[in-house]
Amino acid sequence: MRILVVEDEAPLREQLQSHLTAKGYSVDVAEDGEEGLYFGREYPLDIAVIDLGLPKLSGIELIRQLRAEAFSFPILILTARGNWQDKVEGLEAGADDYLVKPFHTEELLARLNALVRRSAGYASPIIESGPVQLNTAAQSLVLNGQTVSLTAYEYKVLEYLMLHSGAVVSKIELTEHIYEQDFDRDSNVFEVFIRRMRQKLDPDGTLQPIETLRGRGYRFNLDRNKI
């Protein structure tokens, strides 16, 4: 998942970038509202974390501008202001949730995870399709009741495909949402990931959970059961 962090305090910004990267997010960072607006307009984001007290363009105005331009990715507000009026103003500007500083990183991660899965239509952290259960909180995979081991990047690819179950996802889209920097889009890296996941999810070839659509991309195609 690709996340934008807009925070003017360098130590907190770097700490957030480190924690989120360790949890598998592809992280873009901005130090003021104008830079945040640029990232929001130009990058294919899955979610954003925005501080309210930003220079150049306030967090509230940044959120309003993004929503006015029809960007619909979830937004979590970070604020040092604990009064209810600021929270209401942020939510009415278009934010989806807020967290008051200081905060625990675990709570931030849980809220981000909830926002991402709800934006894809899931109420539970467990995405279930047939015998496949992906736990987005624990970042674990269970197949027919048995835990299946995934590498970090295999998990990222499978999570993105399952959150967009039924949709065709191109290699370019996967690249933009999984990697922080430009990646060799002509490489066979996704073919390798997909082949490995097929072997793990469907060793006997009966489920065929991941389709390859030549020239278009991939589609996770088991019946989707939202829980």
Written overview of the protein:
This protein has 227 residues and is α/β, with parallel strands linked by helices. It is built from 8 helices and 11 strands. The chain has 2 domains: 2-119, 3-Layer(aba) Sandwich (Rossmann fold); 126-220, Arc Repressor Mutant, subunit A, CATH 1.10.10.10. Strands 2-1-3-4-5 form a 5-stranded parallel sheet, sandwiched between helices. α2 runs parallel beside α3 and α6 (152-163) packs across α8. The longest helix has 15 residues, at 105-119. It starts with a strand and ends in a 7-residue tail after the last strand.
How would the blueprint of this fold be written?
Layout: E1 2-6, H1 10-22, E2 26-30, H2 33-42, E3 47-51, H3 59-68, E4 75-79, H4 84-93, E5 97-100, H5 105-119, E6 126-129, E7 132-135, E8 140-143, E9 146-148, H6 152-163, H7 171-178, H8 189-201, E10 210-213, E11 217-220
Parallel strand pairs: 1-2, 1-3, 3-4, 4-5
Antiparallel strand pairs: 6-7, 7-8, 8-9, 10-11
Helix pairs in contact: 2-3, 6-8
In CATH terms, the superfamily of the largest domain is Response regulator
Gyration radius, rounded: 18 Å
Helix content: 40-55%
> Roughly what fraction of the amino acids lie in strands?
15-25%
- How many angstroms separate the termini? 21 Å
- Please mark out the parts with pLDDT under 50 across 5 or more consecutive residues, or reply none: none
Count of distinct structural domains: 2
Quaternary structure of the protein: single chain
- Mean of residue pLDDT? 87
Alpha-beta classification: alpha/beta
CATH topology of the largest domain: Rossmann fold
How many H/I helices?
A: 8
Under CATH at level 1, the class of the largest domain stands as: Alpha Beta
Overall strand count: 11
Order of helices and strands: EHEHEHEHEHEEEEHHHEE
Q: What global shape is seen?
A: elongated
Please outline the major beta sheet: 5 strands, parallel
Strand order of the largest sheet: 2-1-3-4-5
| CATH-scheme architecture of the largest domain | 3-Layer(aba) Sandwich
